[in-house]
Amino acid sequence: MDKDRLVNFMARVMEESGFKVYRNFQTSRHIIDIYGVLPTIIGDIGVVVACKNYDDRWEVGLDVLKEMEMVAKTLKASKVVVVTTSYFTKSAENYASRRNIKILDKEGLMTLAKKFSAQHGEYGGVQVYNGDEADAGNPEVTEDYTPSSNTASSFPKASKTHGLFGREKGSLDKAKKSTSFSMPNSPELKPLLTNTISLIIIVFALSSLITYLISSGYNNTAIIGVTKIVVSAVLSYGLVMVIERDLMTILSKGTIVFFVSLLIYVIMIIVF
After folding, report:
1. Which pLDDT value is given to residue 65?
2. What is the pLDDT confidence band of residue 33, given thresholds at 50, 70 and 90?
């Protein structure tokens, strides 16, 4: 399978999963084989995919995985996927497992191609996985270029290909029918929700109001305090999740908003 054929095949698989696909997507420093965008009820999810058609004697190493992580950070993509017609080094597999990077090696690619061919027969007039390859169980790989000895890229051998991009077509259709709570279109609200100080004020005000409404009639300060903490946590992480896609950003910014709003609440109790 040559490079273009591999890229087109993976792009088609992603399109079948509901992604909007951009081939040979160019950033300021890199050209990505595939950049996919999946619309969800919480906003668009970006995925960067590297396709490496290496000969069996070449194993994908850490350098490709780390490079794709940098690209994903630049594009604020949520997932990194590396596909290869060869295999990954052990260190690359361990790193991918720790960093939640999807890797697909030769065996996983064969399984995916067989399944796809069974469903579609052929793609774009060119058969994705021909009968001779299926019978042999070990398709011949055409090397598009010779990488350096320390080059790397792909998916773990044990990965299940049917969930490769995390969402079945049916679930995507269901999501499209759901009510979206993504970033508000109002230009007045956007600066408020993206600014950390404004977000802290909003969380504090809303949590105080909600706590007052929920706890009206209760004189137990313990219940009021617990309610305040729970409501503040839900609002802090929930509002950040609406405007941010990166998990680490959600956790860090949400934690800051949560603890600062609680600190303000404690100070007000002491002062007043």
Report:
1. 92
2. very high
**Residue 184: inside a domain, yes or no?**
no
Q: How far apart are CA 207 and CA 223, in angstroms?
A: 14
The total number of residues written for the chain in this structure: 272
Where is average pLDDT lowest: 5-14, 156-165, 190-199?
Answer: 156-165
Distance from C-alpha of 245 to C-alpha of 45, rounded to nearest angstrom: 7
Q: Does the pLDDT of residue 159 top 60, yes or no?
A: no
The residue-averaged pLDDT of 244-266 equals 84
Regarding whether 115 and 246 lie in a shared domain, the answer is no
Count of helices and strands (H, E) across the chain: 10, 7
Q: Report helix, strand or coil for 125.
A: coil
Give the CATH number of the domain where residue 109 resides. Answer: 3.40.1350.10
Distance CA 250, CA 246 (A): 6
Residue 81 β-bridge partners: 49, 102
User: 194: Cβ–Cβ under 8 A, 6 or more apart, which residues?
Assistant: 243
Q: Residue 149 is encoded by which pair of tokens?
A: 């000895």
Q: Is 170 a member of any domain? A: yes
Domain span at residue 50 reads: 3-177
Report pLDDT for 191: 66
Range among 16-25, 34-43, 209-218 with highest mean pLDDT value? 16-25
138 and 196, same structural domain?
Answer: no
Closest C-alpha among 87, 132, 128 to residue 108:
87
Place of tokens 């617990």: 226
The residue among 89, 136, 92 whose CA lies nearest residue 110 is 136
